Amino acid sequence: MIPTILTAVPAANDWITLDFVALGQNFWSATFDGLTFGSIYALVALGYTLVYGVLNLINFAHSEVFIMGCYAVFFTLSFLGFGPSAPNLGVGQIVLNLLLALIAAIVASALTAFLLERLAYRPLRKRNAPRLVFLITAIGASFTIQYLIFVWRGPVPEQALTMFQTKPIFNVFGTIIYSDQILIVTAAVIMMVITERFISKSRTGRGIRAVAQDPDTATLMGVNKEKIIITTFVIGGVLAGAAALFYVMKIPSGVVYNGGFILGIKAFAAAVLGGIGNVRGALLGGLLLGLIGNYGQILLGNSQWTDVVAFLVLVLVLLFRPEGILGSSLGRSKA
Amino acid sequence: MNRKRVMTTLAAAATFGMLLGGCANQAAPEGGGSSDGGNQSAVDIPALTSVDTPKDAVLPAGDGKAKCPSTTTLAYIGAQTGANAQLGINIFQGIQLAINEHNEANPDCQVAFKKFDTEGDPNKATGPVTQATKEANIIGVVGLPFSGESKATGNIFEQVKMVHITPAATNPGLTENGWTTFFRGLGNDAVQGPAAAKFMTDKLGAKKVYIVQDDSEYGIGLGKTTSDALGDALIGTDKVTQGQKDFSATISKIMNSGADAVFYSGYYAEGAPFDQQLVAKGYTGTFVGPDGLKDDQFIKQAGDASKNAYFTCPCIPGELIPDFAKAYKSLTNMDPGTYSIEGYDATTVLLAGIDAGNQDRAKLLDWVNNYDADGLSKHYKWNDKGELQAPTVYGYKVENGKIVPIGPIGE
Asked: B255 and B270, same structural domain?
């Protein structure tokens, strides 16, 4: 009875059945929920994509960059007096408090990303380490941060905090849309549009693309490569911090030392699905992954299949488009 | 350049589309959420403040005239460290209390107590169990607390014919192994499931129950016994996985089904966020979980949503038996926890055997086989498989951020 050994066993007596009736009934709510979580995946996926685009490095420690943001949200909101009950505050005050939490999360995640780059990756770059070493270092850094949090906060999740009472806002096709869903999707899309504009328009953005295309030539043309790399990490951290706020909003009990792991894997898959290194691809991949997972789960009536379905689609897409749906170059993304 | 503009426009269009769609549909009746608001406030079961104990319950002290060799030893085998250590601590402190009371009252029979640590892990349990069975002075064991480790070690006890009473393992399959030395000091999940079903349909007045089970042996087994017992009141089932965080797909199904009670068959690590997300989506019915959810962690992680939660557990609230609670507190400086009283009672059965002169393994096993008397928490009489003949299942609820008992259920 006690959760000693959490070994999953397959449900014995049933085989795969497709429940189209349930999918029909739940189609729209599955869509909206899928988009909400998809936006969170997409924000985190951007961090993987940007770093990959610039360094050709899969930064596995990005999930810990994200979870540090979650802890920052938790501590800020606890400090501001949020608790298990929805706070008795006006809309303005709640927005203000959430903005403070957002800033704290962004700072925490960006700082983690910055330190990660400085302490783990830059020394390797200076020594011209082979690419595999970077990958192993990323995994090592991921575990290191996880277990530092474990030692600090222990194995149990933090107290769940309610940010606000979710309110049904309106009705689409007989499905209620909630305030938090609108907030998350809108904010995430806006942030991604800004990121995309920043990369395609600004001077620094051009630098990022230049380094992604050809680091040596970019350096010769006067781009400060180190500065560009650190900027990329920080942008990824900022977006992960925003994702952290939304994630804790949806899943208050998700603040735990290894809480970023699964989300990190999903966000990474989203980045690959859309085309790793491609900013729009991350958005598309994130939303698609959120939707596919939810549809698959309802169709098959079993959450054990959520990830199977999502990753099956990933495999199928990569079979026909090995570079992901939108292709995989940050450098070639439209100038 | 062009594609970017397209995307920005699309995003904006999508947002506005959603807004417009909303306005157009505002007059439509509310889906999902509205149909299930029915009867949640109708039920208010008061918390228990005391538990009746059987008048002639056997106590560890006995008559004070017992005589036994000074080498007589009882053992606890189970978690002392590890992730679920607290449960093991609850149990062996109950055992310690029983042995202390016995030894104080019986100067001529000082029973020694030994503890062996398994960390609750089936892979580590065989070592300590083998070690204990090799110590000739140990004639009886209270343990092992968890189903997995019990399954892994039952054969070792069987080979040396050493009696052991588990105060916490509830997997029904444990008594189907043909073991003659295994006794279960509480109801199993085959009892808990039907009791939970009856509790929901009778006491909570639920008419539409939705069952969600996780993918553990425990969750699947309990989900099945519960849904079998619900009959027509069961309107849907869904499966989630351990470690899952986002339950929106399952919750969407529940809201569409108009359920007025949800039974979550699994552990609190997923059950708590599940309840929280369910309530955030406007669910107003009751939420019921088994002993795997009955933990303060549930309240911590579900937050305010936990107000709608009830629990079923084959454990008796030892904190409501004043004498026991007081003695326990003076020994350990803690209130009795889940399964403390079960550990105490199981030890009492063995101590009574020793006092009656059954001072080797074979005799003590025979004594437990034929035991038929009240303990502090319930009546102890086992069938030939080692199951209690009249196990009790208790209901619990959340009140002011604490889990409080509301009385026996399923009777």
From this structure: yes
